[in-house]
Write a structure and sequence with these properties.
Layout: H1 2-6, H2 10-16, E1 18-22, H3 24-33, E2 36-41, H4 43-48, H5 50-55, E3 59-61, H6 64-70, E4 79-84, H7 90-94, E5 100-105, H8 110-122, E6 127-131, H9 140-146, E7 154-158, H10 163-168, E8 172-176, E9 182-183, H11 184-189, E10 197-201, H12 210-215, E11 218-221, H13 233-248
Parallel strand pairs: 2-3, 5-6, 5-10, 6-7, 8-10, 8-11, 9-11
Antiparallel strand pairs: 1-4, 2-4
Length: 249
Amino acid sequence: MVAARRLQRRRDRDQSRRFLAEGPQAVREALAAGVVVELFGTPAALQRYPDLAALASEVSPVTDEAIAALGETVQPQGLVAVCEQVDVPLADALAKHPRLVAVAAEIRDPGNAGTVLRTADAAGAGAVVFAGDSVDPYNGKCVRASAGSLFHVDVVRAPIDVADDLRASGLQVLATSGYGADDLDSLLDDGVLAAPTAWLFGSEAHGLPSPVLDAADRRVRVPIYGGAESLNLAAAAAICLYASARAQR
């Protein structure tokens, strides 16, 4: 239990190559992926989810107080799993020739990062790259926001300068920018988005760093038809990824 609590700190997650997945949905997806090392649960939760307890190789009943200390939510659901980390090298992910890749370039907010991961999974992306000084994909809030998608796609942690590797694998590299020269609707109408594509998304506060923008094949803006100044990161990512998914199908 003490070792598991240490996994709330990034340093300990990185050293042990383990992380925590909290709640029945995340635990179910982690068990399906075969990465659960140990399952902690309150007696009530283990009784409520006997199928999950049966799939875990090691189950440790704990008190409500202990599960609250291990979890990070306001209202714990009684289950927390210690999991092996699932990220893969960029070369391994690209060797599968994904047609759609999302790159979170120095995105710091774990909720946004997890939502981008979930959206990329829903849109059929084959990989999500956390590039540069991005949030840890195993941050508890990021894991929860991914809603299990962390276990569905190839997750990669890579340096910020990934554009050349993406391009070398046959992907066009599109960078999102509110001031981009290319309009998303025009690219969709012209058939550009039907090609295998890697989308680069930056933080809400600062956008994409200049070197990342310069390395992209195109800078793309999402058209705004109303009075809103801009879209938040998660909304922009959803629109771009689904535009590619539609074009590729």
